[in-house]
User: Fold these one by one.
Assistant:
Number 1:
Amino acid sequence: MNWLLLAGALSALSAIPAAAQKAAVPPPYAGVYQPQGVDEIGWWRQDDEDERTLAASPLVIRDEKLTGYIRNVLCATVGTGRCASARVYVIREPVFNASMSPNGTLRVFSGLLLRMRNEAELGAVLGHEFGHFERRHSLNLFRTQRSGTDLLAWSGLLASMAPSYNVIRVYRDLQWSVYGHLFRYGRDQEREADALGVGYLNQSSLPPQAAAAMWQNLMAELEASAKARGLRKPNFKTVAFTASHPPEGERAATLAGLALPDGSGRDNRAAQYRAALAPWLPLLLEDQIKLNDFGGSDYLIQNLAADGWTADLWFARAELYRTRGNQRDFANAIQFYGNAISLSGALPAAYRGLGLALTKTGRLIEGQAALQKYLQLSPDASDAKMISMMVPGAMRNE
């Protein structure tokens, strides 16, 4: 009898709704959703408390101009009516990520901003997150997870009442089915958000092809990272049983197919994006280099330089090579520092790095001259006393 009940519970799993990929057409905007019922009201209250904590976090980049710019990109993507419900926070974390809570809190991580090449790519990610928000995916996933765990709890109770090999086997099958459904449900939500994100772009003034291009760039970065570490090339066609997102290759291909062909000629506003990010680019590159991901960082820097090398990009690449520390890296770093200095002579840190790299290769006189230049340009630097110890006469000249 209990075995039959467990079998019935297994078949009941199919009653849990699964998200399906929708056509890339945003639904009519129905205004800001208000929480209904105990679950939703409690969730919103928790999100409000989390947002208060986030607003006071030292990780938040407090730049009204940058935050306002990102908000404008969101509005250009999803529409001015929809974006009114979002509150943007830029978080200094060198990871490729963004998220939007049910209460309208939009978190954009600095690592994401570093990897975007234009407003269209940023809009693709923001539209994806807004799709989660508009479809209330977080809340739906919570309800699905609760239904699944409730099913397992009752099934476990029934199994304990009549322990036998067949009952235990059916219960274990049920466990795998529930867990598999929950992970698949999350992946289906990601697919729906992808379709909505490119749907917003289709109806905007930005080229929707940027969504697929962004994933192609990310896969290339992951390949470069794996190659530099001596690892196998990543498989972008399949994912693990427990994966929360679809494979990157699938996402790139799907987004390319959903993009309106007529939209490819639209302005992706790359120049405007570079200008908005320029004040923060050195800091974002510095954070990226500290991740100790040589291959991924080198690919990222070169990808950013596709529209032209700047002093900041040459300096970042020089720092990347110097900090890895192979003798051949020092030779490359010397060249890259020189390129940065030729584009911007008022870059004290470039002279510092150049001096250290020259010293490491045995070119002491040239290295000391570069370090002396660094001290002249930045006499109040935090490491001025330490660097002056490497330059004969520098301490006496203070």
Number 2:
Amino acid sequence: MQGSDCIFEAVEQQDLDSVQILLYQFSAEELDLNTPNSQGLTPLDISIMTNNTPIAKLLLRAGGRESPHFVSVEAREALIGSLVQEAELRAADLSSQAQREGLSLEACQKDKTLKAWEWRSKLYRRMRAGFLHARAPEAPSVVRLSVSSSSSLSVNFQEPQSLNSTVITKYRVEWSCLQDFSLLAGEMLLENLSLRATISNLTTGRLYYVRVSAYNMRGWGPPAAALPPSAAPSSWRECEVPRRRGHIEAMERLLQQVRATHTHYCCTDSSKLQNPSRKQSVSRSLKHLFNSSNKFVKTLKRGVYLAVVLHHKDSLLVTAEDQIPIVEVDDSYSSTLMQDFLWFTKLSCMWEDVRWLRQSMSVSTSSSSTLQARHKMLTAAGQMQILLGTHNLGRVHYEPIKDRHGNVLLVTTREADSTHTHTLGGGKWMPVSKLQSQRKSLSTPEEPYALDILIITIQDIMAYQRRGALRLTPGLYLGFLKLSSSVDQIRVLVSQRHPNMLCHTRVRDNGNVSREEWEWMQALAAAGERSEEAEQQLESHAPLLYYELQTSIKALLKHLNLPLYQSRLLRLYSQEVVELGHGVSFLLLLPAADDVCSAPGQSNAYTPLSGFLHLPLQMFELVHFCTYKEKFIGLYCRLSSVLDLDALITQQALREAISDSEVSSAKQRHQLILDYIQQLDEVRRDLRWITDALQFARYRQPRGGVPVSALVNADAPPRQRAEDRLHLLQQRLLADPLPLARAPAQEAPQRLPAGLR
């Protein structure tokens, strides 16, 4: 039996399981899903006329269509009527023949044919009854219109509230510049049960009215007007000066200039696949993996080490001694370790250039400690690449692991495509749980070494690496910008689930902010906190974004464990919409100017309970741009790491210069590198949206963004206000108990106000 016959039989028998299996195993083309049978019907026609909604929806999602013979409702009614009549005539004819011929072999065969036609007659009568009792669909419900860009609108809607037990097979979206739709600007048919549409190629700033109607076998139903009924394609960028573009081109030009200063420098593109000969050489180098002559460290002594966590699912690649691959970087470290570590993190985007960087550095005993430390980092990375037989060591973890024994562990993580990628030599794949149990029996929990800490937290490290590479789904989000400072760095509050972005909540699916919405936000920022009269006027003229922000702000504050009444001083960033790319946009919620960055030991009302990380600012930007601006951060890391080394080398050459010509040449060379660094910083500054937001957040101005109190009611409830006043009074009494001691003994103590008792 052919695929088309199978699908017809399954639909006619109303066998949902068989239909699911056929659609899973075969494509619509293999099943001839839209080819009418000899009666002029498709499988979808049979399912909708028998009101079998589950099967009809399966067929629609698979691309099923109605028969092209049904050009009108009358044509459908005529065809089903003729099929019923034909089936009844054939059944009656076969029945009379069976009565005349009696019992015979030929009569038995005709009896089977008679039963088949009787069954088909019942099927067609049921289809005709379903058609006659059906009515045209009602209008779709909850039709929402939004501005998705400066040249497009988005329409989202739901099925009619009453389906009349009839399957809807398609929807029609119409748009017009006239409110009465007397002249259409365009229309679009939506099939496959799609409940959303994007109307593209529209004129910016022009008003379009939109409506949606539904269709079933009885024809088109009445249209439903969108809410709002009209919208004009626009973008917030029409009101503001957008960020400059062309950063990639500027950095590529700068890269060419830097290349010219290095005769043998050639920045390779790590995104390109290696050629076959290169792969073979790497494969041959894998033969040296984990052999007895390698230099993997087994026991940590005082110093700096590099560890590579190469994992696949829940397994790790370990050495023959069941150890994580570790090599020594240096036997000591200086106070500039964090600066050297931040430089080392840039190698995540340029592992291919480690060998060249190491060879291009001329390091001597008179070189600066920073230059020597970075040369040792490059040497350790190159050694690890040779031992593992791969250039790509993965992403550097956001902070080094330190212990009380003087050890520092730099960790990189990489997820392998399969366990067959690296299996040569004495190395093997080991489940994480087994490695942890083995190490637990050997470690000393009182004074754990850095390696113990790594193994204990290795699942969190792998989870961070996986989550840090995931992008948010397209849409508009509300993010919370909160920083904290320590002795040597500034940290950003992020969620563990999305470490590449600020703590956030989703506002809506549409990532665009229209000109109308942005002008409304600017009006709020200019007006400040609202009065009762302004509140009524605001709600009467507010766009849908107003209500979406209300819901999002409450959800975000709940996520941060911050009571609504403590959010009165929070503000909405009103300088720009942060557009990350890939359809993801952010509005930022800012703390008060004094609370943007918490100092060490400062009590912080915004500290959430759990599920959050405090990433160093540089590491946050690295993982953020690696996710959303991969090409930009790749070029930046290459240029920055090379220029930083060049600056140290030229500075060393300037110190060692003796003659006037040597000094002049060294100065010229050093100044050239400084000019390159300045150009690179200017290009990077244009994309560092977090820097602009921080400068705005810390600027104490009377109109610094949209106050949260202009969007939600941030007043404390009466009971909470009383508790706060009582707590304040108790704190004052604890700080200065003398006023009560100095009070006259004959005077009765004052009673607390009723609201504080």
